[in-house]
Amino acid sequence: MIDGAYNCQDHLNMLHVESSALTTQDGINADPGAYQSGKKWYRKAAHRIFVNRSLHLEHIKFYGFDMDYTLAEYKSPQYERLGFDLVKQRMVDMGYPQEILEFEYDPSFPVRGLWFDTLYGNLLKVDAYGNILVCVHGFEFLKHSQVYELYPNKFLQLDECRVYVLNTLFNLPETYLLACLVDFFSNSPQYTWGKTGVTCGDIFISFKSIFQDVRNAVDWVHIQGDLKAMTIRNLDEYVKKDERLPMFLTRIRESGAKVFLLTNSDFKFTNQIMTYLFDFPHGARPEDPHKNWKTYFDIIVVDARKPLFFGEGTLMRQVDTATGALRVGTHTGPMLKEHVYSGGSCDVFTKLIGAKGKDVLYVGDHIFGDILKSKKIRGWRTFLIVPSSFKSFTYGLTNANFSLSFRRWMLCWGRNIKISTRAPKRNPTYRS
Q: Which single residue of 19, 115, 149, 188 has CA 20 to 30 Å from 406?
């Protein structure tokens, strides 16, 4: 999660954004040193919230949170390296060459949001309209002439049969492994390269089959493999803990709003991760006694299967928190505090909690499963976690050749989308 995400001053007012550092309370600050001056109206890069539509928090009655990469921030690159090592071992177990085990994860290469073209085995960076900005085959960045040869007009339509979008943080190890495998098979003297795959004697290995094997291996590691077990055994190594989290959720509820957890993770894993995140000797305040993590939420839903949850959904069942087993039958009654529910659909969920679409602000990291579907189908207000933005800002603010023009662009951008700076009428009381 973005650093400082549990700072109530910054994040409960999350969508009431202050102006760029070039703008003072009275107008434009022409002094480039304002970025380093620490003036009170300037927020550090990791604390900034950007909006494309103004939002007044007094209208929000329900705050929803995803767990993975939202409330639970996995340490990078340690966690991606763990996933990468487990997937490559699975690939070898599936019959791939032992040389794959020599691959080492490089966190500087993969970025979220790339397309993988299963026909040609290329990783593509595209704009919002499908225009190809960068094309990489393995680790070879193709020249413009090579890109035009494969993609006329440097354009590719998003076709689910051909293109897979690597749009989550969980996809980072997968992105790098795909690049490693394409590079390995394309450059190994044992194989003959072709546009759509490689051959070795009578064997043809298409880039699409490599992709499908990687997808199967990733799913196996997450569902049946050791990823969750190793995470639980080494929580300090892979999961960040922030002592401000209990107070953050408590102050939201003290403002009169309700808080819910909506995650795709199963109850066993969710319970272990959340227990760790709330494992402090005190409660929300130093004088408060320690409380179970479930007491900080009004509603808890696991195994949600987003984005299916926002469509037809699944049966909603109650979880026996003592055993982790699902109780027989469909849950139709009210959703009770400190109870845990599995599955369901947005229709059933909102009906049971008495929420309308615009009453809900949902925070997540998955632009498709968390943000797009909940917004387009159900009208929820949404908040996307983008940890990589911090790196972009850090580069921009420390690079003298880039920084000034970027700040000017940010000021114009902020004016164009009419960022609201009016504080909400009803929000939690902030204390130092």
A: 115
Establish whether 66 is an annotated binding residue: yes
Q: Is residue 112 part of a domain?
A: yes
Q: Give pLDDT, residue 402.
A: 60
Half-sphere exposure of 65 (CA within 13 A, CB side): 25
d(CA 306, CA 97): 35
pLDDT at 74: 97
Using the structure block, give the residue that is written with the tokens 């202050």. 18
Other Cβ atoms less than 10 A from the Cβ of 80: the count is 23
* CATH number for 281: 3.40.50.1000
Indicate whether 308 and 378 sit together in one domain.
yes
Residue 409 token pair: 């662009």
| 160 and 45 share one domain | no
Catalytic residues: 66, 68
Number of domains comprising the chain: 2
Both structure tokens of 307:
């984005």
User: Residue 86 sits in which domain range?
Assistant: 78-235
Other CB atoms within 10 A of residue 221 CB? 23
Domain boundary among 235, 256, 287: 235
Quote the tokens at residue 356.
Answer: 């309308």
Residue 126's pLDDT is what?
A: 96
Is 213 annotated as a binding-site member? no
pLDDT at 373: 85
User: 351 and 220 in one domain?
Assistant: no
For the chain (432 residues), the mean pLDDT of every run of 10, in chain order, is: 38 36 36 48 71 89 97 97 98 97 97 96 94 97 96 89 94 98 97 97 97 98 97 98 96 97 98 98 95 98 96 96 95 95 96 93 91 88 83 58 62 56 46 40
Residues 175 and 307 in one domain: no
